[in-house]
Amino acid sequence: MPNPKPMRAGDAAPWHAALSSKFPGALVCVTIGLAATFVSENYGGPQLLYALLLGLAFHFLMDDRRMRDGVDFCARTVLRFGVALLGARITLPQIATLGPAPAATVTAAVVFTILFGLLLARLSGRPREEGLLSGGAVAICGASAALAISSVLPQSKENERYTLLAVVGVTLLSTIAMIIYPFVARGIGLNATQAGIFFGGTIHDVAVCCCWCRWCSSSRCSIAVRHIRRAAQANASRWCRCF
């Protein structure tokens, strides 16, 4: 009977190297998350806002190559996994309890926002494509919607410039909105369901939307509304192809 081959030292190198490259950055992200949670629980206020501020304060660590892989891993894979776990908690009966009104409201808001972008472009003497890109980006899901719509428009340098303008503008405005809107929702006295519809229909980033809604105990409602807006992206792209 032949003897089994001895394990070489380099056999475990690939997974060990991958783990080692991600560990420092992941540890920094976990530390910032724990610190934001501690401040939120002991001094009040939204956990996400503290995490954003701490993340900005420690952004200089991205200049260190040892941190990049771990931070990128947490910002993409771990974040998407967390959003998927929140989405998995939504069931069809829970969506049904919302009724047809939120879905109809969000769908109408998407359509009228795109049409308003076209109207505003026409009134201001801007090209139709610029109004379509800006309206679609605001109505659906920000930069990704602008890029999806741009992919079905005629390829030209002008459209590339309009796309860049729409991406930069909607990213700036959505950043301001995701900080201000939660306080607006509490200030005007929205309940959990109303806040979920408001956040799901206005905040572009899914993860940020989920975090704010957990603060207001409305995450499931918000995710359901957010998925309605996400479903509109493919339909909007098909419509723009025929535009």
Q: How are helices and strands ordered from N to C?
A: HHHHHHHHHHH
In terms of DSSP E residues, the strand content is: under 5%
Low-pLDDT runs: none
Determine the structural class based on helices, strands and strand pairing.
mainly alpha
- Which range best describes the helical content: under 10%, 10-25%, 25-40%, 40-55%, 55-70% or over 70%? over 70%
Distance between the termini: 72 Å
Radius of gyration: 22 Å
Element layout with pairings:
Layout: H1 13-43, H2 47-57, H3 65-88, H4 92-98, H5 100-123, H6 128-139, H7 143-152, H8 157-187, H9 192-202, H10 206-215, H11 219-241
Helix pairs in contact: 1-2, 1-3, 5-6, 5-11, 6-7, 6-8, 7-8, 7-11, 8-9, 9-10, 9-11, 10-11
Keywords summarizing the entry:
single chain, 243 residues, mainly alpha, 2 domains, 11 helices, globular
Task: Characterise the protein shown here.
This protein has 243 residues and is mainly alpha-helical. It folds into 2 domains: 75 residues, no CATH class; 145 residues, no CATH class. It contains 11 helices and no strands. α1 crosses α2 and α7 runs parallel beside α11. The radius of gyration is 22 Å and the shape is globular. It starts with 12 loop residues before the first helix and ends with a helix.
